């Protein structure tokens, strides 16, 4: 079909030289696909290089401890991806002798691997004719064919996958899948695409109908929850501090943080001071307390906005289980705490 041929020709001329494209080995392809979920290539690339340097095979990743994995992942966000990555590496190394499943259906059974990731690995590693459907594919197809299907609906993926499969040259699915995703990433971008230089500017239905900025249709709005975090940065007479592991399910599971007071709204010095005196450091008298940041740092996650304050607490004597700054920096933290430690301590 003309669409597929033009698309692949464009890709071969314009594709980025990315390390996971120069191999059919499922291990680096799987790594890259997990890392690039919810993440731009420019942000994910340093992490991919760090991981492949530290863990050159799936056996190396399987042998690592979780804290090593989380430390290398620090700053990439959506940390459940890293935990699933580690567990899946262990499963492949221990149960499958290091050999990845060789088809789409079996890849889907891996922890952390959904339809899109399974399709990507199956087509790029094994040239299986299965279409990938991500945000780029939704955007390119909805615009080219003027499809007003709400992509937030569960049925949309099946509809777009069926169309992509119809368009896909069955003897070259890997290149087609790479091409349509790359075209969405570089040319048919979400906002203000340069349609004047587009290879499809004479055949794109959305362009002809002046609807480019209206597609794809996505109706569902995410409800944002506001949370208020007060981190207690404690220092004893040896300048040691204490941290805690986040063991509850939810954001930042198994990462570390300073002792936390979460409140219903932004609270002032008096409120936090009273909470500190009443519930924390009963074995150590608080000598002084001050705000590191008078204005809250707003850290935005997909469904939550965190309003964060750091409080400097000096206490008498030595803290039980205290650690020094050098040890502190070896732990995996949420990026907002990591940045605080690097900048302010």
UniProtKB/TrEMBL annotation:
Pfam families: HHH, HhH-GPD, NUDIX_4. It catalyses: Hydrolyzes free adenine bases from 7,8-dihydro-8-oxoguanine:adenine mismatched double-stranded DNA, leaving an apurinic site. It comes from the Bacteria. Its EC number is 3.2.2.31. Residues 35-186 form the HhH-GPD domain. GO terms for biological process: base-excision repair; mismatch repair. One of its GO terms (molecular function) is 8-oxo-7,8-dihydroguanine DNA N-glycosylase activity. Gene3D superfamilies: Helix-hairpin-Helix base-excision DNA repair enzymes (C-terminal) (1.10.1670.10), Hypothetical protein, domain 2 (1.10.340.30), Nucleoside Triphosphate Pyrophosphohydrolase (3.90.79.10). Binds 1 [4Fe-4S] cluster. NCBIfam families: mutY. Belongs to the Nth/MutY family. Adenine glycosylase active on G-A mispairs. MutY also corrects error-prone DNA synthesis past GO lesions which are due to the oxidatively damaged form of guanine: 7,8-dihydro-8-oxoguanine (8-oxo-dGTP). This is Adenine DNA glycosylase. It comes from Flavobacterium xueshanense.
């Amino acid at each position: 079909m003309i669409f597929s041929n033009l698309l692949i020709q464009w890709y071969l001329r314009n594709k980025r030289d990315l390390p996971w494209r120069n191999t059919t080995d499922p291990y680096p392809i799987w790594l890259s696909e997990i890392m690039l979920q919810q993440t731009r290539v420019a942000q994910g690339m340093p992490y991919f290089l760090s991981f492949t340097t530290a863990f050159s095979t799936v056996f190396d990743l399987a042998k690592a401890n979780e804290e090593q994995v989380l430390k290398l992942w620090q700053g990439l966000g959506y940390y459940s991806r890293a935990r699933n990555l580690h567990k899946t590496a262990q499963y492949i190394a221990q149960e499958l002798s290091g050999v990845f499943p060789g088809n789409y259906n079996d890849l889907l059974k891996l922890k952390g691997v959904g339809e899109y990731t399974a399709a990507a690995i199956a087509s790029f590693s094994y040239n299986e004719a299965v279409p990938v459907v991500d945000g780029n594919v939704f955007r390119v197809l909805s615009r080219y064919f003027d499809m007003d299907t709400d992509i937030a609906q569960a049925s949309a993926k099946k509809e777009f996958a069926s169309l992509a499969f119809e368009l896909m040259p069955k003897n070259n699915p890997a290149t087609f899948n790479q091409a349509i995703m790359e075209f969405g990433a570089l040319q048919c971008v979400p906002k203000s695409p340069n349609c004047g230089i587009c290879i499809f500017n004479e055949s794109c239905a959305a362009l002809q109908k002046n609807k480019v900025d209206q597609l794809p249709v996505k109706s569902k709005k995410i409800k944002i929850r506001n949370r208020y975090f007060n981190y207690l940065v404690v220092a004893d007479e040896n300048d040691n501090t204490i941290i805690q592991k986040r063991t509850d399910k939810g954001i930042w599971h198994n990462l570390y943080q300073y002792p936390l007071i979460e409140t219903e709204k932004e609270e002032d010095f008096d409120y936090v001071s009273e909470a500190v005196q009443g519930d924390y450091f009963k074995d150590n008298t608080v000598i002084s307390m001050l705000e590191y940041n008078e204005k809250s740092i707003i850290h935005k996650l997909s469904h939550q906005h965190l309003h964060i304050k750091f409080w400097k607490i000096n206490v008498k004597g030595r803290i039980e289980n205290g650690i020094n700054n050098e040890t502190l920096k070896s732990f995996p933290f949420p990026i907002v705490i990591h940045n605080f430690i690097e900048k302010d301590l």
